[in-house]
């Protein structure tokens, strides 16, 4: 029997012009963001040159392509610079620079998000300001503003027009004109439009359809359908990150492909044909955007999902690659800020991996496997490999179980997503029917939760990988080599099976990490772990033993930090106060590291933090006690003394956490001849009291209070004479931490200032009595 003739299109060289234009647009966005004003002139000249070349209609294809590349890059760069200048020159930005009290009207453009604030939990909302009055002048404009408010902002519907009063502060984000510290509850001027109300009703019905299910299932179903992951527990989120399943909880192209694909199946069943199917697909995409919100991440996911639908059709690889290039150009022209968004880069890389790598890998595996299995393996593997270098650059880790976990979790993802949407829609008509669909969806996600938990528990589920230039270069080159040789290795049964066996053995055992050699550094006495926006400090008490001060906002980062340091037991876990960014990671310390005692501040507030610590400690057979004031204790090589709060300070608070920072435990530590002051989040008032109580106090190392905020008693901090200042802070946080004024004042003394957001884990090192430091990204 003669083999079928190969498709002539398979021999045709791929047309890479549109992907090349997409890369040019991306480069233009990066130039516009980072190169500053001089690029504007260069962009203008490039635009002119590109336009002239195109207008002349030059016949040579390379010249035309080069002209188009120049034109696109210059256009995106110019767009980025103009947008930044519009934000900087906005009257809102000028009022923010003066700290003006204003009254404004605007449209709510994001869902409310609860964040840990300086005086307890606060609500973060984004507004598009239409009218603002400040310093006696009223302006009509359109400017993006971030609002930090209290409980009254929590339930504002998306699309509502509101009026509020507050004080403006400068924004750290180049795409936000100001930060508004709202003075009170907003007043709703106009309700959202009907389509926003409809989307909100579906989301509420979706949550109601799974309300009676177990917590992980109840939270994951809405996350799969519309990206609403606010109810996902930190432990589950950590397991999803370790297994490469995080994309399931975010709004991604996969969501759109599944939901719109389901709509198209229903449409075909109803005998919709021809161009009307395209209309149905367009309406499905619009409905998805409304359901998941018109935020940049959602629009990005809608575009990438649309490319996925294109790729599923005839000649999908060629058409999908062209569509990806077009999407890059259009998205970056509309929103140049996407050029520096990690989520955008991950979406593009995953889509490119599926389009460019997956077909070859699938065909190679199909030589000895059923085609459906080959495709199921090739698609997640190609997407994961394409994203691996960037994921390592962001997280410092490489997941070895991601492909297997995605493969295992894939079967119920489609049914869970479709059933979840059905639960939301059917619940609008009849709540019991919606609950039936929601229950079926929750049964599907129960398997996904099981895969995440078991995958994350494997010995080498993730491998720590440095984020330095050499480590990332090695990983990038290795990924490129693997992408090239994979079809050759996978085409033969023997080598394909051998690759699978090697991966299984690597995951089942603990792998050494030679790229992370030198960590922890010899002679380390303290490490400030990079746990994001929070504190987690580790004091070296003895080989394998450490005193841990605070646990950060998430169990996974502090757990990994302790493992990297070789900590196997914790004689003392001391929590400076009960805010989430200091205690929510407590299970990361208690699980797998025997803890001798748990101590806390005297003030039992906020209640949710107290409950979390009490319950977690009880699970480990411990009862938290107040850290004893003034008592000098020695634990191994560490001598510590509590300087604050005072023994007569309150033990009950107002219940909102507003006084918790001021009640932070402040520790004076002596280790290997060095004195360290670990100041928690103590406020300026407490710092001033300490200055009066301890005149002449001198230390070698200072853990800067409250993540380097501008609320400091700088004379006290500067009088300590610290040679090394550590700032534990999360990158791109919403509070403006650390304040430039605080950092400048500390650095002005000649001290070295290190920050976890820029430098990663911070190690204080003592070698032959000499103070030093080392960082790990």
TrEMBL record:
NCBIfam families: ComEC_N-term (TIGR00360). One of its GO terms (cellular component) is plasma membrane. Keywords: Cell membrane, Membrane, Transmembrane, Transmembrane helix. This is Competence protein ComEC. It is found in: Cell membrane. It comes from Nocardioides panaciterrulae. Pfam families: Competence (PF03772), Lactamase_B (PF00753). It is a multi-pass membrane protein. PANTHER family: DNA INTERNALIZATION/COMPETENCE PROTEIN COMEC/REC2, RECOMBINATION PROTEIN 2. Residues 533-732 form the Metallo-beta-lactamase domain. It comes from the Bacteria. The chain crosses the membrane at residues 20-53, 248-270, 276-292, 297-314, 326-357, 377-407, 413-433, 440-457, 469-490, 497-517.
């Amino acid at each position: 029997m003669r083999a079928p003739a190969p498709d002539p299109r398979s021999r045709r060289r791929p047309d890479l012009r549109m992907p090349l234009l997409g890369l040019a647009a991306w480069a233009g966005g990066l130039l516009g963001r980072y190169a500053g004003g001089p690029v504007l002139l260069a962009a203008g000249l490039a635009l002119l040159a590109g336009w002239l070349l195109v207008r002349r209609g030059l016949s040579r294809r390379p010249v035309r392509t080069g002209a188009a590349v120049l034109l696109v890059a210059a256009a995106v760069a110019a767009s980025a610079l103009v947008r930044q200048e519009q934000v900087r020159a906005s009257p809102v930005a000028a009022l923010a620079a003066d700290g003006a009290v204003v009254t404004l009207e605007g449209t709510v453009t994001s869902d409310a998000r609860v964040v840990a604030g300086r005086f307890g939990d606060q609500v973060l909302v984004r507004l598009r300001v239409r009218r603002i009055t400040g310093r006696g002048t009223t302006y009509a404009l359109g400017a993006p503003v971030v609002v930090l408010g209290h409980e009254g902002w929590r339930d504002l519907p998306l699309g509502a027009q509101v009026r509020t009063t507050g004080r403006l502060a400068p924004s750290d984000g180049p795409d936000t004109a100001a930060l508004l510290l709202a003075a009170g509850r907003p007043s709703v001027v106009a309700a959202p439009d009907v389509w926003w109300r409809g989307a909100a009703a579906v989301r509420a019905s979706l949550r109601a359809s799974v309300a009676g299910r177990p917590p992980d299932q109840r939270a994951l179903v809405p996350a799969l359908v519309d990206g609403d992951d606010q109810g996902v527990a930190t432990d589950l989120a950590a397991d999803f990150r370790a297994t490469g399943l995080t994309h399931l909880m975010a709004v991604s192209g996969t969501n759109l492909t599944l939901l719109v694909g389901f709509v198209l199946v229903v449409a075909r069943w109803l005998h919709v044909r021809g161009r009307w199917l395209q209309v149905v697909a367009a309406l499905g995409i619009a409905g998805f955007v409304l359901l998941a919100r018109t935020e940049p991440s959602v629009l990005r996911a809608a575009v990438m999902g649309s490319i996925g639908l294109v790729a599923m059709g005839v000649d999908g690889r060629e058409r999908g690659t062209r569509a990806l290039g077009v999407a890059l150009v259009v998205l970056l022209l509309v929103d140049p800020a996407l050029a520096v968004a990690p989520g955008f880069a991950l979406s593009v890389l995953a889509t490119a991996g599926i389009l460019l790598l997956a077909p070859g890998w699938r065909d190679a595996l199909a030589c000895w496997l059923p085609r459906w299995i080959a495709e199921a393996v090739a698609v997640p593997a190609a997407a994961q490999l394409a994203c691996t270098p960037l994921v390592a650059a962001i997280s410092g880790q490489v997941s070895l179980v991601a492909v297997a976990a995605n493969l295992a979790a894939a079967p119920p993802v489609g049914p869970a997503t479709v059933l979840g949407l059905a639960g939301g829609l059917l619940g609008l008509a009849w709540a019991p029917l919606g609950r039936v669909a929601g229950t079926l969806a929750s049964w599907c996600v129960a398997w996904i939760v099981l895969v995440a938990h078991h995958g994350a528990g494997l010995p080498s589920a993730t491998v720590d990988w440095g984020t330095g230039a050499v480590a990332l270069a090695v990983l990038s080159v290795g990924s490129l080599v693997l992408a090239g040789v994979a079809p050759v290795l996978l085409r033969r049964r023997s080598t394909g099976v051998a690759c699978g066996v090697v991966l299984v053995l690597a995951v089942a055992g603990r792998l050494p990490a030679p790229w992370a050699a030198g960590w922890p550094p010899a002679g380390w006495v303290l490490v400030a772990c990079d746990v994001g926006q929070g504190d987690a400090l580790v004091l070296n008490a003895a080989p394998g033993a450490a005193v841990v001060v605070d646990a950060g906002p998430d169990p996974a980062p502090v757990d990994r930090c302790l493992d990297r340091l070789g900590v196997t037991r914790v004689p003392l876990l001391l929590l400076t106060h009960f805010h989430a960014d200091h205690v929510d990671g407590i299970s990361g310390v208690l699980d797998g590291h025997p803890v001798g005692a748990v101590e806390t501040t005297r003030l039992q507030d906020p209640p949710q933090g107290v409950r979390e610590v009490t319950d977690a400690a009880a699970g480990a057979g411990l009862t938290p006690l107040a850290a004893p004031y003034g008592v000098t204790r020695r634990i191994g090589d560490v001598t510590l003394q509590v300087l604050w709060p005072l023994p007569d300070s309150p033990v009950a608070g107002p219940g909102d956490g507003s006084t918790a920072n001021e009640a932070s435990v402040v520790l004076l530590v002596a280790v290997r001849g060095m004195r360290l002051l670990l100041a928690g989040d103590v406020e300026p008032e407490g710092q001033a009291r300490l200055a009066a109580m301890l005149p002449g106090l001198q230390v070698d190392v200072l853990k800067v209070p409250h993540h380097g905020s501008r609320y400091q008693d700088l004379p006290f901090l500067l009088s300590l004479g610290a040679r090394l200042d550590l700032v534990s802070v999360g990158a791109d946080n919403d509070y403006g931490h650390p304040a430039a004024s605080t950092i400048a004042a500390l650095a002005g003394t000649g001290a070295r200032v290190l920050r976890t957001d820029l430098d990663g884990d911070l190690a204080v090192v003592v070698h032959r009595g000499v103070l030093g430091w080392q960082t790990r990204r």
